[in-house]
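Predict structure. Chain length: 647.
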Amino acid sequence: MDRNDEELLERFQCDYNRRLEETFAQTLAENENARLFFINENQAFTDGRNIIVDPAHDQLFADRAALDDTGDFLEWPRVVLIDPWNALRIITRAQTIHECLHLLYSDFPPRLVGDERCDTKNKTIIMGLISNIIEDAYIEAVGCSYFDNMEFYLKFGRVSRLFANHPSEGTVNRCFGKIVQAEKDRLAAEKLREEQETGGKQEPSERTNGERLMDILDYMANFLLYPMVRITNMQADVAAYMEAVKPLALAGSMAPAPKERYEYSTEIFEIIKELIPPDTEPMDPESLVMKLGGTKTHDGAGNSIGGEKREGKAQAVATRLFTDLEGKEKPNRPNVAELMQAIQAFSREKQAALQEISYQGSFAEYHGSDYDCAVIHKGIKINEIHPKINLSLRVAYQNIYRNYKSSIRSYSNRFSQKLKARIDTVDDKFMFGNGISSRRLGDLKKRYWYRKIPSDGIPDMAVLLLIDGSGSMFGPRQRAAMHSAVILHEVLKRQEMPHAVALHRAEFEESVIDVNILCDFDGREEEKLNLMQIDAYGDNRDGLALFWAERYMLRCTTNEYRLIIVLSDGVPAHEVDDYYPPVSTKDTANAVRKITKRGTDIIGISLDEPGEFTCYEQLSQIYPNLVACNDLNRLTGQLLGIIAKLL
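Prediction complete.
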């Protein structure tokens, strides 16, 4: 790969694309706990729960000749693979589908684990390879028999692997004749060179059992997985084995249940067992492993922490990937409309991925003089910050979500019931009604009356959670605020209620306050990861922060009801201008009163130590509507209770 290819691969392997594949895998594998990861180790496998894929497998996406040959063989329009990004998507999706089908139809761990026949390392390897070939042939057959829009991915995955491992010049013919011929020419050239070096013709040496064994498995892989490759000049020393193995392999690859398929594998194993060398004689299955695309799914060594024991489902198949059940070759005839639909989806997803990668956050600067606040704030600068999304925080967020998943579901159900209320909807353009709409006074037909019609529904409300980010919040309060923000976000998102979470603090000795908008109204999904950045340091200047919050809600929302919830552990204090009580307390109380009169409700929550109400007593001088919380485990319930009660 050159530098451009490396940069493209780095952009492609972003968390956005990983999540796309993971969501697809969870749906196809019927397992919401399945996790998918990108690696660059030239292998793809699953352990029964985790799925590992390599978009750069064999560096195929950067191999223009292999892509062109693959597309020509499959009779695809050139436009499908002209963009390396599309090639990466198809490579990745083909691997994901392959491993998901194993999750559905294969046993985990594989049955060879604990099989008494596999009492040596080499025997285990051979049993794994046999089972691998049969299982791969079966899951590809069931994929094109039982699922829609999957066959072209499976064909690409199989054909491209052969081209990537055995490159040839020009357009390949239907039966890979050039590949076979190129391999023959290479072997002939090597033989001729050896003869020239030794000065004459050597007597052919007898092949080892290990070489014969690899030959048998290679033939087996060809007629099950690559039936388009002609098997020519089969070596005489393996012909009898192949005659016995072939019908068993064909029947095994069509057996509907994992147990049946493994029984066929064991029958083949017994036939060729006499060829398996002792462990002191290492075998070389590298070329076969390359053809298979890795063996970790089937050898029992790919199990990791969290891997699950699963029994594969039984499912009959109606056809094979490249042939019918009788072995007759099927014409390719690709569904061009299907392909182009996929390419269009890839284009949309590419733009979304690049937009996410390039998002660097945003910054805006305001001043106290921009607001009708007290004179003491006029010289203070307000930094309004949308931080850059740190995608590496996804695991931390998911851990919190997983720990509180049942609570989120419970809160959401109860909250939904509390929110349902008898509300008035307004209908206008009437000649008589409950009131006059001033904006329609110019109506020539005098339809300036409106009527209020009672109905059941959720009131039109937007919520802003304003969190004190000063140093005194460090420790348990900081963690409680973070966890509560996550739960609140998840619950309100399910109710489709507009909400935002902002963290505010003042710089110690500077005339500056920072407001970090961690999760915005109608923000992008990934913004929720910013909630993991809730931290604690500095001072707090709540009076000015509240004026900012009011203006921000008016700027970003059009909801009828607006609610600011202030989460704090004490009275405002900022070293600049000696903004300390009683000045800071009185100033913030005036801000609350003024903002409330203008139509935005404000409710404070005091975070006290267990058994104490010191903070509550201090903040009660500021917030007429104040809720005491000296048990951080109850914080989330109190937050949601406040919203429901207000509605």
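Summary: The longest helix spans residues 121-146.
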